[in-house]
Amino acid sequence: MRLKTTLAVAAMFLATTGLARAEGELNIFNWGNYTSPELIKKFEDTYKVKVTITDYDSNDTALAKVRQGGHGFDIAMPSQNYLPIWIEEGLVLETNPGQMENAKNMLPEWADPEFDPGRKYSVPWALGTVGVVVNTDVYKGPIDTWAVVFDPPAELQGKINIVPEMNDVIHAAIKFHGGEMCSADKTLLKQVRDTLVAAKPLWVAMEYSTIEKMVGGDFAATTDWNGSALRQRLQNPKIQFALPKEGFQLWSDNAVVLKDAKNVENAKLFLNFIMDPENAAMISAFSRYANGIKGSEAFMPEDMKTAPEVMVPADLLATADYSKTCPPEAQELYTRIWTELQK
Amino acid sequence: MARPFDVRRQRGFTVVAAFCFALLYLPIVVLVTYAFNAGESIANWEGVSLRWFVAAAGNAQVIDASIRSLQIATAAALIATTAATLAALATTRTAPYRGQAATFAALNLPLMVPEIVTAVALLIVFARIKMATGYTGLGYLIAAHTAFCIPFAYLPIRARLDGMDLNLERAAADLYATPVRAFRHVTLPLLWPGILAGFMLAFVISLDDVVITEFVKSGGQETLPTYMLGQLRRVITPEMNAISTAFLALSIVVVTVFFLVSRKRD
Amino acid sequence: MIRPDGALEAARRRDVRARWLLSAPALLILAFAAIGPLLVVVLYSFLTPGPYGDVIWSFSTDAWVGVFLERDIFDDTLSLADAHMSIFVRSLTLATATTVLALLIGFPTAYFIATRPERTRELWLFLITIPFWTNILIRTFGMLEIIRNEGLINTSLRTLGLIDRPIQMLFTDGAVMAGMLYVYLPLMVLPLYASLEKLDFRLVEAGYDLYATPFRVLTRIVLPLVKPGMIAGSILVFIPALGAYVTPRVLGGGKTMMLGTLIELQFGQGRNWPLGAALSITLMAMVMVALLVYVRYAGREVRHG
């Protein structure tokens, strides 16, 4: 009887559901493809703890989930522009990582950031910039400007991608018009809207997956994060990354212990663990982004030490905006511009 | 008996069917080919290699997620098909009764709700339950999957039941078969193709789900699709193709065995 | 058989009770994991958006106004929500086109399978379901590999010397439709097959014997009998296509929104959950109206079956 065969096969699968769990545990909630397996292996071996990693794909998903509770995670990695929301809503535990043994390794510019003064809650995991990437086989002009995507040269028209991170795109367009981050100035935002609406027909897509499309020739230019740009150049040296002269964003993702964590001690061990230069270098080697830990360069792979994408020149650093949470009034205007743009 | 032609061989239909199979299989062929790519990308071909199969086999996270996906899909499809079969028997071949239309609407409801809405709604409700009971196991995912699998299992079974010959069951009843025996020996064998189609639909729908799972999963409950979604924003390597190829090979083996076994019985 | 009215009535009541009992497991699961949560969505559509997502518990109809009317961002005038309307229209058009194409390809395929000899039929059926065993994301990526600029079609055409510049197929509405067709096609074929499989082909032969044209045989004999399968298949394709999220994201290039992505935006970066909830209910209302019309129209001929 076929019914019986089906049931038997099904029962076999189900029998494997109730597997035993290890004694010490740590549940990490992190961006996909962002957690170095070597790092986890080393942590597990050092502290005899079983680590599980669960992925999320956007700050908003992660926030929504953690806020609703009952999630079972110990550690999450919110971006710095979301971290104040997490703190304000009482989602994270005050573990004072700034006082931990390895805190001395934090780079001074990341040791006391605006989004977490005194590092009471968080530890830098990875950090980077938002800029433009251009295939210089297609376009040979200057690329250090947002004009590459907002007022594109003929060679690039119809081959441009925009990474659809709403806040990043609006920020870039605001900078293009000489405005301030998180501006709610309607005259400026009108220009922003008009620029975006006028430029959109010249774009081919608004996508996250840029690496294989830049390398595969579907895009000739895109907005992108620096670590992604590095991966593209390693596959095709003609693909170049630039930080626009009008201004750009500097962002970081930070590890925090959640308020309803069940394994607080293990989570604290982990925060301290990733501030060790050798361990931080593992994070970077895997994710291809820099970290905020002094001395980690020494342990990084050769192609990252020399990568122009990873290291931000000091003179450009002055024009950078440290990514932050925009007030709800501004956010509402941005959403409406964004919806209008994609209609 | 001489006929002008055989109704079973409509040449035009055969051509369309061939196109249909080509459409279904071409992307799969490409997918499988790139699983053997020696290079880093799923776009540029750089020679044959098994490296991505080795990488996938050594990736504990992937193995874990795959097994979990199969468990959830099996449980959800079994429960959903059973519940849907009973519900289909209840709502078909009857004079209209009070509540029948409402039942029908309820059964199809998950189809009408965009996934993202169900996802957020379930997140809100399940989070409260998780906090109240302290249970954070796979049960929530199975319940959520079962719910949206029910209409997928229900529709083909209902389609099969609609217009199925009632006389056979009446005959069984006239021969003093108990309702259970009549169901077991008459209705069930006739209904079986519908149930099988319903189960398969439910199973693959569950196996495929991304959005709802993403919102409902608790710590350490990654399924294969949510794991892949996590990769989507960064970079996709042929490792994903290798995993899919392995899944495909496995399903072909299972399906073949299933096919041969059922054939021997006939 | 003549029975007193009372006994008949009692038998009928028993029958109805049995039917409720049989439906109970499915209804209970749905109440827990579909209907209950949905009421929460209705509730949320009448609340005020929280500053960073979620809701504030104070009554507001702003979300519902926002579905149909929009206040100009800059001069504050009210007008019809033109952005939302064009997204609704685009989604409806693409979903309808996908369903029609799936029917046009799915029916001959199901017919082909149903007319194979008994022994090979299941093999063909399994061939339909096998692509389904691969994850939807990955299958969509397979499609992407075929239609991209350096993909299979463009490379072949270039090798043959038919074109010298790649045709832009990826990131178009056509690509989204092809992707959805590919992904949802088995959902059409399976229920169609389930209906066709029990079709008595002697009826078809009888039709031909009476010198009916193939077209008349199809419309008068075959189609009425497979209608339940067609309804089931169309529902299974149309609705997920209307709210599709993954395929437009991967193949459409995200430049133009569909309903699924619009709703996702409100619950995600847009941080306007009440608007997202109101949009969802609007979408469901649209689907329900379409469904009622469809079932009522199609059910008329089925009932006597």
Folded structure, characterized:
The complex is a heterotrimer of chains A (343), B (266) and C (305). Chain A is an alpha/beta fold. Chain A folds into two domains: 23-127 and 252-312, Periplasmic binding protein-like II (D-Maltodextrin-Binding Protein, domain 2, 3-Layer(aba) Sandwich), CATH 3.40.190; 129-249 and 316-341, Periplasmic binding protein-like II (D-Maltodextrin-Binding Protein, domain 2, 3-Layer(aba) Sandwich). Helix content of chain A is 38%, strand content 17%. Chain A has 15 helices and ten strands. In chain A, strands 1, 2, 3, 4, 5, 6, 7, 8, 9 and 10 form a ten-stranded mixed sheet that branches. In chain A, helix 2 links the parallel strand 1 (25-31) and strand 2 (50-56). The termini of chain A are far apart. Residues 16-22 of chain A have low confidence and may be disordered. By secondary structure, chain B is mainly α. Chain B has two domains: 10-49 and 237-266, no CATH class; 61-234, Orthogonal Bundle (MetI-like fold), CATH 1.10.3720. In chain B, helix 6 (139-161) packs across helix 8. In chain C, the strands form two sheets. Chain C has a two-stranded antiparallel ribbon. Helix content of chain C is 72%, strand content 3%. Chain C has one domain (81-302): MetI-like fold (Orthogonal Bundle). Chain C is built from twelve helices and four strands; from the N terminus they run H-E-E-H-E-E-H-H-H-H-H-H-H-H-H-H. In chain C, helix 5 (136-147) packs across helix 7 (173-196) and helix 7 crosses helix 9 (214-242). Residues 301-305 of chain C have low confidence and may be disordered. Chain C has helices spanning 5-44, 62-68, 82-114, 118-129, 136-147, 152-159, 173-196, 201-209, 214-242, 246-251, 259-267, 273-302; strands spanning 48-49, 55-56, 69-71, 78-80. The longest helix of chain C has 40 residues, at 5-44. Chain C has 305 residues and is mostly helical. Classes of the chains: A alpha/beta (343), B mainly alpha (266), C mainly alpha (305). At the B-C interface, helix 1, helix 3, helix 4, helix 5 and helix 6 of B face helix 1, helix 3, helix 4, helix 5 and helix 7 of C.
